[in-house]
Amino acid sequence: MSSMEQLYQQLILDHAKSPHGKGLTDGHAAESFQVNPTCGDEVRLRVHLAEGADPAQIDRVSWEGQGCSISQASISVMSELVEGVPVPSAEVLGETFRALMRARGEGLEEEAEDRLGDATAFTGVARYPARIKCALLGWAALRDALAQSGALDLPGQESTPAPASPVPAASVGTDPATPQEDHA
Amino acid sequence: MTAVLEPQASAPRPELTAAELTAVRADFPLLARTVRGGRPLVYLDSGATSQKPDVVLDAEQDFYTQRNAAVHRGAHQLAEEATEAYEQARLEVAQLVGVQAEEIVWLPNATAGINLVAYAFSNATAGRGGQAARRFVLAPGDEIVVTEAEHHANLVPWQELCARTGATLRWIGVHDDGRLRTEDLATVVTERTKVLAFTHASNVTGAVTDVAAFVRRAREVGALTVLDACQSVPHLPVDLAALGVDLAAFSGHKMLGPTGVGALYGRREVLEAMPPVTTGGSMVEVVTMETTTYAPPPQRFEAGSQMVAQAVGMGAAARYLRELGMEAVASHETRIAGLLLEAVTQVPGVRVLGPLDTQERLAAVSFVVDGVHAHDVGQVLDDAGVAVRVGHHCAQPLHRRLGVAASARASAAVYTTDQEVEVFAEALAAVRPFFGLTDGGAA
């Protein structure tokens, strides 16, 4: 499989074509709007929390957005992945996915990959620094929405990801996955 | 059409011969490299930044190895030679665009040039520059006019200037094919207009502006004209004096020169009336503890140590382009523009943003592929070794006007070949099928 075929796995193309959770619905606990200033991709994402759960639990997310197949598929896969998941576990998933984006296409340890499930399809994205931000757009929106809802504490944290919490069992790369901006 | 393009209607411009084009390509070492697992590079992103010929690289190397010294100070031989190289480069750039050397100010890039002008207005408005600078004083009720096709570099500085002075920003809109609504000049540009800032050629649509019409209208109302010449100077014969604009900015790195250097042209009397912006060493005459008098242009606008080696490199780039002949460069690129447009319009489900007539445009061809985001288009092209720009190309309002969030852009330079366009066309035809879109017989 070429690098490009690894980048655009069938699962990604399928999700981009028929995204999960797309279409905003009411009854949400919080909403986040994120843009990728490089290309104007954007997502508006609402997090819906399960009633009375302790710790707080994501019931589902709903979203609207436009962007490349990587960003749209990533939001879709994430929406499936976090449905019915307690917020602390969703944060671990987010950390694990961010670690995957720092792994330069090498992937993570088995346990971490099992946790990510379908989201491991994005392993190849990490070979293309300019595309990492596409894959992270939805995860940044989820984290921001959870923080706004009060269900997730992010000390001194804005909406862009900056790993602060421990990442159990994930082989985390040392280089930050810094997306490239382009100009002119 | 602009004055600079008119001569071609009567006298056909010389073409680069195949042998000349081969020789040109040999001047650019980077063009020989491969990408993505051994594919020959097809560089169609010169609108973002051009590649550099050996003469530019050598000029910088020669400066550092033979002449490096502080310019405009010191009595030693190296200082003399460094100063001469620096000023000779200024002359080379001035000659490329038909103006006097003293009318060229070195700046880090075109963005810095436009910002310099905007801040000169601010300073004059704050009372700096005295009576001589009264043309630059703005007040509520005054208007600055731009166009909807501007690169952010020729939009945001004017928004900021309006915010600082209370002036109002207005703009000339664009037609559906990206051409400016030149016919609106009479209504949008009025006695209240103090600045008319516009691009010579859009970095998105490639559309060339009717500069003469803009200048004519600005003169009728006494507005200063500021031209973004970044996309024109590398690709067309440009005579800024003949165009009659008051100020113009262009960058070195888009015209085969180094990064970190650009030029601001200002008509002599305009620069002379403009108050300084960045202050400090090298731009002064007499300094006491209380007050300072300023050097005449261009030094007045060149405070602090300058990017001398880069300026020398930009001078070498200007000389290289003049030796090729801008008529020949433009002629070659017009033909490439035709090939690019043909390539893009032939592929089902692909739409050009911009005019289709090569007499109205440059070889920067932006397009959208139905059902495939620009980033994904760029990725598939990249896999074939083809480098294009994707995104909004620093022109979000224009993309919004044309109803798209992002586009892909193939942009040529003097070194672009027919064969490269063929590789691009083949790769582009594979984009929709790759994403499972097969209508229109593209599969």
Q: Could you walk me through the main structural features you see in this protein, from its secondary elements to its overall organization?
A:
The complex is a heterodimer of chains A (184) and B (443). Chain A is of the alpha+beta class. Helix content of chain A is 38%, strand content 14%. Chain A has a single domain (3-149), classed as Sufe protein. Chain: A (Alpha-Beta Complex), CATH 3.90.1010.10. Chain A has helices at 3-7, 10-17, 69-82, 87-101, 110-116, 129-149; strands at 30-36, 41-49, 58-66. Chain A has a three-stranded antiparallel sheet with strand order 1-2-3, with helices on one face. In chain A, a hairpin with an 8-residue loop joins strand 2 and strand 3. Chain A is globular, with a radius of gyration of 15 Å. Chain B folds into two domains: 3-51 and 325-437, Aspartate Aminotransferase, domain 1 (Alpha-Beta Complex), CATH 3.90.1150.10; 56-322, 3-Layer(aba) Sandwich (Aspartate Aminotransferase, domain 2), CATH 3.40.640. The interface between A and B is medium-sized, with 24 and 29 residues.
